[in-house]
Design a protein that fits this description.
The protein is of the alpha+beta class and about 200 residues long. It is built from 6 helices and 11 strands. The protein has a 9-stranded mixed sheet with strand order 1-7-6-5-4-8-11-10-9, sandwiched between helices. Strands 2-3 form a two-stranded antiparallel sheet.
Length: about 200
């Protein structure tokens, strides 16, 4: 299974926990998604699911760390701050106690595409994923997760696809079980996700 691995050039600076921003709502949302089994770990020990929120009016964002899906309760130490991304160069800069999620490039593309988007939730659910394929915006199977190609495609869609702008949810045919929802707040992104379950 080609899941859970960081495919971008990861410039991670290991630091203490990120405390200069309040992201307790994001932590609580992540833990609720874990309770609902929308974030977790497969039998092969590959974790799935990640959440993020934009920092104020910047393109920087807090995101859950790589391979943290197995944690029953995530805490502040389980998040990373992404402060620079170059999609063309497949490069990301982050800092914190843990490196950013393997899907951080995808989250970055969403934030870069629309300044109003403040939160992104990425979960896995095999049954719901299958039912949403080609019913909501679906990214073709040939585009793999965590790649510049996926980031670019999402950027194009968020600029040009009115349905996606309104529904705020998409699935990736090439990223089995993967569902993305986003919104102007963490609560609204969670509401979008909840509306399809």
């Amino acid at each position: 299974m080609d899941e859970g691995y960081i495919k971008y050039i990861n410039n991670w600076e290991q630091t203490e926990a990120i405390t200069e921003f309040d992201f307790i709502e994001l932590i609580n949302c992540r833990n609720q998604l874990k309770t609902l089994n929308l974030i977790g770990v497969y039998q092969n020990n590959i974790a799935f699911g990640n959440v993020s929120c934009r920092i104020n009016n910047t393109n920087n964002f807090i995101i859950s760390g790589t391979q943290t899906g197995a944690l029953g309760i995530a805490q502040i130490d389980d998040f990373s701050l992404v402060y620079n991304v170059d999609i063309e160069a497949n490069t990301l800069f982050c800092k914190g106690p843990i490196a950013a999620s393997s899907e951080a490039l995808t989250h970055a593309a969403i934030y870069l595409s629309d300044a109003k988007i403040m939160a992104v939730l990425h979960v896995h659910h095999p049954t719901k994923w299958k039912s949403l394929l080609n019913k909501v915006t679906t990214i073709e199977k040939s585009i793999a997760y965590g790649t510049p190609q996926l980031a670019k495609k999402i950027g194009e869609l968020l600029k040009n696809d009115e349905t996606l702008k309104q529904e705020k949810i998409f699935v990736t045919a090439g990223h089995e079980d993967g569902i993305f929802a986003f919104g102007e707040t963490v609560e609204k992104a969670f509401g979008v996700l909840s509306s399809v379950f």
